[in-house]
Amino acid sequence: MKREQAVYLFIRYSILVALGFGLEFVYRIFTPLTIYPVYWILNSLYGAVLVDNDAIVIKGVFIELIPACIAGSAYYLLLILNLSTPMDIGKRLKNIVYLIFSFLLLNILRILAMIWIFFALYNYFNVTHRIVWYIGSTIMVVVIWFIGVYIFNIKEIPIYSDIKNIIKDIKKR
User: Fold this and answer.
1) How many helices (H) and strands (E) does the chain have?
2) Residue 122: which domain range?
3) Quick check: 20 and 63 in contact, CB under 8 A?
4) What crossing angle do the helices spanning 137-151 and 89-120 adopt, rounded to 10°?
5) Which residues does 82 contact at the CB level (< 8 Å), separation at least 6?
6) Which residues have CB under 8 Å from 78's CB, separation 6+?
7) CA 2 distance to own-chain centroid
8) Is 57 strand, coil or helix?
């Protein structure tokens, strides 16, 4: 492994560790990016009101978008997958943009769908919410990642490819 590649590897994993300790930073960025579009759409459809920048009132119903709704951990998982996969920086940046905006859009649509289910199909809300929470969110992250792998023609495997390259380099020496 060339010195430049080793430095790049170190930087990638250092960013991951730093983001892990600073997950609050991820939430600080994505909370308003999630809440405001949801509010704007609900306001235009139902005359919703934003309360304390994290809750929305629709037809007298108080809907709080808690950190689990923002799904900062899912963004972090997508960044882990991206940064732990060897690829050139141009492809990496395009993939990160794709991953973040795809998840943001789908997360906003997921929240809107759950609110619609709450009002239109109240009897099914709890079961639907649990299914989406436990299974749907994971599937959403996996599908976004694999679509990105396809779009950007990523041939490497997260973490495994880095370890394989390090072992190969050690054997050479």
Assistant:
1) 8, 3
2) 3-172
3) no
4) 150
5) 92, 95, 96, 99
6) 99, 100, 103, 141, 144, 145
7) 32
8) strand
pLDDT tens per residue, range 97-147: 999 999 999 999 999 999 999 988 888 888 988 888 888 888 999 999 999
DSSP conformation class of 58? E
Nearest residue to 140 via CA among 71, 50, 38? 71
Structurally, the chain folds into a number of domains equal to: 1
pLDDT tens for residues 23-73? 888 899 999 999 999 999 999 999 999 998 889 999 899 999 998 899 999
- The angle that helices 122-131 and 89-120 make with each other, rounded to 10 degrees, is 150
β-sheet bridge partners, residue 62: 57
Put simply, whether the predicted model's pTM sits higher than 0.70 gets the answer: yes
